[in-house]
Structure formats: structure tokens, C-alpha cells
Amino acid sequence: MADYSLVGFPNAGKSSLLQALSNVPVKIASYPFTTVQPKIAHCKYPDGRLFSLADLPGLADIYARYSARLDGDQRSKIYTPGVEYTESAADNSSDASTLPALKHTNFLKHVERSSCLLLVLDALGFRQDQYSAWRSPLSCAYLIMHLLERWSGGYLLEKPMVCVVNKMDLPGAETEIPSWLELLSNMRSKEAREASELPDLLLPHFVPQFEDIHLVSAKTGNQIPELKESLRRHLDTIELRKRQDEISRTADKQRELDKKFLFDRGTTYC
Asked: Which residues are CB-contacts of 21 (< 8 A; sequence separation ≥ 6)?
């Protein structure tokens, strides 16, 4: 469908990022789920090169009842509106059957044909509503990966992935992000998993390593030119990997045919 697919939670600035990269006007608003249908745009370069981007609807945080850190240092007490909170309501059971069903994820089928994923994070984290826990950029990355893993059986996490931390123009972003940046760079580490404050049940089994992490502001355009050049290089690298893999598979297949020809037929010697 597109060379790059933008995935993330609502209001992370995916549509703003698409507009900043492609100069294509898109609907942008401060309320969640502004994007309801995938939108394709092209990023063009002075030499005529271009690549395509897909802006996808935001993923819903369906795990809001599971514990995570609220504003400050308190542990969250997440509950269903109108239902009194109990400790069992925020139970972090290790039984995967207790996880809520995936919702509004049919658009992810478009991601299957993308060469690379752009995981877009809000520099100040995400909170779905007043009943939900605040999610740090790190925990957002884990949760998005977990949703992609559940939906695709892990297939989508095998694709190259670039992390884009957006909204660096917001007050406090410059001071908050450095503490998360090292953890985002090493999400396979025990320290990163613990810092996410998510139960093991909500952590993906396979954690891909980001090709790169970019700190940008789609609103002001800060670091957008650098991101455009980086995405171009990544696409070239991904294409080279595909060709190398294809050559390797062809060579392996030829070796198997050679073995069959040399050793699997009867001898003709007297």
C-alpha cells in the first residue's frame, strides 16, 4: 500500500507529520480519532525521488484497566466508569485469555504491504480519557507493539521500524524525553521493561530494534528535513536487504537442486 505506514495512539500527531513530510493538506484536530480512513501521500525530493506514506487511524488503548503510572508517582486505579474500584479491577493476570478483544484494527491490513513502520509517539505520553492511566512514551511503544503482535501473530513486528517522537515543541518535552530516549533505544533490556511499569502480559514477546529514533516537531517543522533524508536512506537500505535476501534464497535453492542432482540419482558406473 505504501512505503511507510504511520502507526500510533490517537493525537500523537500522525496526520501533522504526514502533512509536514508531504505538504499534502490533511484534516488535523485536537480531538482523538480525527483520521478515520487511511490516507496516502507522497514525499518528494528535488531530484525527483519520492516515496509514499500512509496515515492510519489511531490505535485505541484497550488495556486501560491494567495498572500503569498516573500523573506523578502514584500507581493507577483504573476502573470502568460507574464501577467501584477494587484491587481485582486492576489485576495484572498472567492469563492471556483475560485480555480484551482487539477493536477497530481492520485498517492494519494495509500495514502488511508497507516496507517499514513509522511508530509515532507523543513526547509527553498519552492518556486516552479521564478514566485511563497516563502512558509514558516508552509504555506507548510497548503497547503499540503488543497490539501489532496480537493482530498479526508477530508478522508486523518483523518489519523494519523507525520511531518518531513528535510534539517536541510542547513545554516540558525537551526535559522529559532524554530520560526515555536511552530506554527507547534499548527496549529489549530488563531496565526498559521495568521502566514501562506494564505487566508482562502487555509486553510483546518479540521486541524489534528501532532502525532509528527521531525527535521532531511536525507543527514547527523542527528536524523534519533531517527526518525526510533519513527515511530516504532507510528505504534504500531496506531495498538492499530485500535483494540480498532474495539472492541468498536463490543460492540456497540452487544448492539443494545441485545436491539432489549429484547424490539422489543412481550410479551409472559398472
From this structure: 41, 43, 53, 224, 227, 228, 231
The candidate with the shortest Cα–Cα distance to 217, out of 164, 144, 161, is: 164
Residue 216, C-alpha cell as written in the block = 521532531
What's the residue count for the chain? Answer: 270
Distance, in Å, from the CA atom of 58 to the CA atom of 86, rounded to the nearest integer, reads 30
What number of other Cβ atoms are within 10 A of residue 102's Cβ?
Answer: 14
Q: Where are the alpha helices (DSSP H) in the chain?
A: 14-22, 137-152, 173-185, 190-195, 224-263
Half-sphere exposure of 82 (CA within 13 A, CB side): 0
**pTM to 2 decimals?**
0.78
Pairing of strands 39-44, 50-55: antiparallel
C-alpha span between 139 and 141 (Å, rounded): 5
Going from the C-alpha of 98 to that of each of 63, 91, 92, the distances in angstroms are: 11, 10, 9
Q: Identity (one letter) of the amino acid at 80? A: T
At residue 75, φ and ψ (nearest 5 deg) are -85, 145
- Mind listing the pLDDT tens digit of every residue in the chain (270 residues)? 689 999 999 889 999 999 999 988 665 555 455 555 788 899 988 888 889 999 988 888 888 766 554 444 433 333 333 333 333 334 444 556 677 778 777 788 888 889 999 999 999 999 887 777 889 999 999 999 999 999 999 999 999 999 999 999 999 999 989 989 999 999 999 999 999 999 888 999 999 999 999 999 999 999 999 999 999 999 999 888 888 877 887 887 777 777 777 766 555 555
